[in-house]
Write a structure and sequence with these properties.
Layout: E1 2-15, E2 18-31, E3 35-39, H1 46-53, E4 61-66, E5 69-70, H2 76-86, E6 87-90, H3 102-107, H4 118-131, H5 147-160, E7 165-169, H6 177-194, E8 197-202, H7 205-210, E9 213-218, E10 221-227
Parallel strand pairs: 3-8, 3-9, 6-7, 7-8
Antiparallel strand pairs: 1-2, 1-4, 4-5, 9-10
Helix pairs in contact: 4-5, 5-6
The structure holds adenosine-5'-diphosphate (ADP) (2 copies).
GO molecular function: ATP binding; ATP hydrolysis activity; transmembrane transporter activity
Protein name: Putative ABC transport system ATP-binding protein
Organism: Nitrosomonas nitrosa
C-alpha cells in the first residue's frame, strides 16, 4: 500500500485579488519506507507538497490519501489527530523551543498523548536522544548546541511520536557541508532501521543522490518521478 497518494491535486493561494497556482494536477504515489527527495527551484511548490502531506494545508482540488485515509472531508480536529499520529516534522531552521533543554524539546510533543505514560515518555526521550548521539547533551539548551546538534534534537523530537512519515523541509539548508552530510547519513540510517518513510525537499545534489525516489517539480508541475534504488 502507498503511504501517500495524490490524485489530481491542485493548490491555489489567494494573494490579495490575485490567484497563485502553487500546484497543478499532481499525481503521485509514495511507497512506505522510501527515502524520497523533492527537488525543484525556489517557488516551484516543494513546501506546498510537504504542507499538504503534513495535513497543515488542504488541496484546492483533487484527493490526498495519507496512510490509506482520504484527508478531504476530514474536520480540522480529525486532521490534527491524523497529523499527530502519523507525521513528524523537521525544519531547515530547526524550530526548537529556546527555553527548553534538548531533552524537554524531545519530550514536549509526547505530552499531547494521553495514552503515553510518564514512564514511556521518559524512556522514549532517552532512547531517541541516544539514537541521534546526544545523550550527553540532554540538559543543554538550543543556544548551547551547534547547528548540527540542534538538527539532531529536531530529528529525535520528530521520531519520538513514532510517526510513519517524517517530512523535512530543506533539512541541510542551514548546515555546513560536512554537518549536512552527517545529518543525512543519520536520517538514512533511521530510515533503514525503523522503516520510517522520509520525504524531504532539497536544492542539494548530495541529498538527491541519497534518495530512493526523486521527484522534480517546476512551476507547480510534476516534471519527473524516478525510482533510483
Ligand atoms: P523555501 O523556498 O525555502 O521553501 P519559501 O520562501 O518558498 O521557502 O516558503 C517558506 C514558507 O512561506 C512556506 O511554508 C510557504 O507556504 C510560505 N510562503 C511562500 N510564499 C508565500 C507567499 N507569497 N505568501 C505567503 N506565504 C508564503
Ligand atoms: P518552494 O517550497 O518550492 O520554494 P512553495 O511551495 O513555498 O515553493 O511555493 C510555491 C508557490 O506558491 C510560490 O509561488 C509561492 O509564492 C506560493 N505560495 C506558497 N505559499 C503561499 C501562501 N501561503 N500564500 C500565497 N502564496 C503562496
Amino acid at each position: 500500500m502507498s503511504i501517500v497518494r495524490f490524485v489530481n491535486v491542485s493548490k491555489e493561494y489567494m494573494l490579495g485579488e490575485q490567484k497563485v497556482r502553487a500546484l497543478k494536477d499532481i499525481n503521485l504515489e509514495i511507497e512506505e519506507g522510501v527515502f524520497l527527495a523533492i527537488a525543484g527551484p525556489s517557488g516551484s511548490g516543494k513546501s506546498t507538497i510537504l504542507n499538504l502531506i503534513g495535513c497543515i494545508d488542504t488541496p484546492s482540488s483533487g484527493n490526498i490519501y495519507i496512510n490509506g485515509q482520504d484527508v478531504s472531508g476530514k474536520t480540522p480536529d480529525e486532521l490534527s489527530d491524523l497529523r499527530a499520529r502519523t507525521i513528524g516534522f523537521i525544519f531547515q531552521t530547526f524550530n526548537l523551543f529556546p527555553v527548553l533543554s534538548a531533552e524537554e524539546n524531545v519530550e514536549y510533543p509526547l505530552l499531547q498523548f494521553k495514552d503515553i505514560s510518564t514512564k514511556e515518555r521518559r524512556e522514549r526521550t532517552v532512547k531517541f536522544l541516544d539514537i541521534v548521539g546526544l545523550a550527553k547533551f540532554a540538559h543543554h539548551r538550543p543556544n548551547q548546541l551547534s547547528g548540527g546538534q540542534r538538527q539532531r534534537v529536531a530529528i529525535a523530537r520528530a521520531l519520538a511520536t513514532h510517526p510513519k512519515i517524517i517530512l523535512a523541509d530543506e533539512p541541510t539548508a542551514n548546515l555546513d557541508h560536512k554537518t549536512g552530510e552527517g545529518i543525512l547519513q543519520l536520517m538514512k540510517e533511521i530510515n533503514r532501521r525503523e522503516q520510517t518513510t522520509f520525504i524531504f525537499s532539497t536544492h542539494d545534489a548530495r541529498v538527491m543522490a541519497m534518495a530512493d525516489q526523486l521527484i522534480h517539480i517546476e512551476d507547480g508541475e510534476l516534471i519527473a518521478s524516478e525510482i533510483t534504488k
